[in-house]
Amino acid sequence: MLKKVLLIITPVLFSNICLSAQDNKVITVKAGRAVIEYFPVQVRYRYPDFLAGQVQFNNGNVSTGRFNYNFLSGEMEFIQAPDTLSIDNKKVISFITVAQDIFYYNNGYLELIYGGPVKVGLLQFFRLKDVVKKGAFGQATRGVSLESYNLEARGDFHWWVPSEDLVFQKTQKYYFAPPESGFVQFSRKNVLQSFSQDEIKIKKYLKSNKVNFNSAGDLLGLAEFLSSFTKIQHTNH
């Protein structure tokens, strides 16, 4: 269930990483340099330190420890001296709490940012956006297949030294979970499919509010709207 990952400890204190859709930071790892050199602790992790939390498993068991989410690896890590571990079999997880925050696993760790009847989760990670290869006369050329760079297959790729420049971008994706249902990515299509009985009301709301499905504020407002008539339906039952 558990696998070992590497952790670098630093005594320096860092400020909290902001949960903001505007934080689309681009980081270029230069050829011949280790990936880890460009991702210090304050960039790589959700929190400036490992914090107290627990894993709630589907079978009701609970495991406590100190946790932190790694944006680069996409893993929720925890300390078990002298090692740092991550959960290998994510299917057994119900949810994870870190300090006051809650994370669900749905092809990635979703941080709960709205806990109403219609929940909203935020997935944050660094994705490999581009590979830049040096061509003739040292000129940069693009077009290298990203599929050929399977980072997961490279083991602890934090220490990998690429032969081309790698361009990573901080990425946010939003998900919602209707009552008694799992998370799906937040999109107009998925909202209308999940709440087909209220399609007319939802389309009217979307037209009036011009919802941007990449905006946290817009999606939280939409989730509150969806939760409002979900509460009414439950009351009527």
Give a short summary of the structure:
The chain is an alpha+beta fold and 237 residues long.
Strands, helices and their partners?
Elements: E1 2-5, E2 26-29, H1 41-44, E3 51-57, E4 62-70, E5 75-80, E6 83-87, E7 93-98, E8 101-105, E9 109-115, E10 119-134, E11 140-141, E12 165-177, E13 184-185, H2 188-194, H3 199-209, H4 216-236
Antiparallel strand pairs: 1-6, 2-12, 3-4, 3-7, 4-5, 5-6, 7-8, 8-9, 9-10, 10-11, 10-12, 12-13
Helix pairs in contact: 3-4
Structure description:
With 237 residues, the protein is α+β, with helices and mostly antiparallel strands. It has one domain. It is built from 4 helices and 13 strands. The radius of gyration is 20 Å and the shape is globular. The N terminus is likely disordered. Helices cover 18% and strands 36% of the residues. The N and C termini lie far apart (41 Å). α3 packs antiparallel against α4.
